[in-house]
Specification:
Elements lengths: L2 H10 L3 E2 L2 E2 L10 H4 L13 H14 L5 H11 L2
Antiparallel strand pairs: 1-2
Length: 80
Amino acid sequence: MQDKQMSRFFEENGFLDFGMISQAKPERRATLSQVLEAGSIPQRFFLSPKACEGILRRAERRGKKLPEALHAALEAVAQQ
């Protein structure tokens, strides 16, 4: 999200209190798909194959099981 969008999101969802992030939990939750930007996205926001390899390596080392879709997407990019 761009800075203006992020500010608007925090204000609309009650995260900001006098210009600072408040400790109170929001009454309404948003899913990731509701806050992500759609359309043309700059390349700098994409993970590199090396970054994907690192995420997979750390998850394996820590014994963490990633969601199947995430694991498959990370592997696909890592193999490029």
